[in-house]
Sequence to fold (62 residues):
Amino acid sequence: MPVITIAGNDTISVEDKREMVKKVSEIVADSYGLPIEAITVLVQAYPKENIGVAGELLSDRK
Fold:
């Protein structure tokens, strides 16, 4: 069944992750016509020193 991977920096709180996973699961379940139990969401959180945007690390941005 569908597996959704969300990758981002590690600044999101557990409460916000919980809400995001619920909302994403509901939307994908509805789109596929599946029960929410069939949806898996993986949240990958990376520290800012492991994310590069526009040729620079996020940890170097001010």
